[in-house]
From TrEMBL:
It is a multi-pass membrane protein. Signal peptide: none annotated. GO terms for cellular component: membrane. The keyword Transport does not apply. This is Transmembrane protein 244. Its main location: membrane. The lineage of its organism: Eukaryota, Metazoa, Chordata, Craniata, Vertebrata. Keywords: Membrane, Transmembrane, Transmembrane helix. The chain crosses the membrane at residues 34-56, 63-80, 86-109. It is found in: Membrane. PANTHER family: SYS1 (PTHR12952), TRANSMEMBRANE PROTEIN 244 (PTHR12952:SF1).
């Protein structure tokens, strides 16, 4: 994976400000712009899960869903079109799943000593 990500970012000709919102790039393994978009989306969602676990400590799933809905709305506004590309939705969904899982697990294990967090009755 390291080689793939390094070679994908090395072949990127220029940085485009639309990278976080671009769903129109042709999804192909040989397309460096697509690989950079995919890698940046997944890494951002992974790191966001860690950040949410550290900051909010509870209900990471709620923050993850809210940020994802905001991302879809901003993407639609920036690109002036609603994303209909199934590969983009698959990448977004897997990133969301990754963010929720790692964030909730880290929040759960770091807050185990907190009695109010230990029970799931607050959910």
């Amino acid at each position: 994976m390291y080689t793939w990500s390094t070679s994908a970012s090395d072949r990127l000709d220029h940085f485009d400000g639309l990278i976080p919102f671009d769903f129109k790039t042709e999804p192909a393994e040989s397309n460096s712009k697509y690989l950079v978009n995919l890698l940046s989306l997944e890494l951002t969602y992974f790191c966001s899960g860690l950040l949410f676990a550290a900051v909010v400590r509870r209900r990471v799933w709620d923050y993850a869903l809210t940020v994802t809905l905001l991302h879809v709305m901003i993407t639609s506004l920036v690109m002036l079109e609603f994303p209909m590309v199934w590969q983009w939705w698959l990448a977004l969904g897997s990133g969301l799943f990754l963010m929720i899982c790692n964030g909730q697990l880290i929040a759960y294990f770091t807050c185990q000593s907190d009695q109010s967090y230990a029970s799931f009755s607050i959910y």
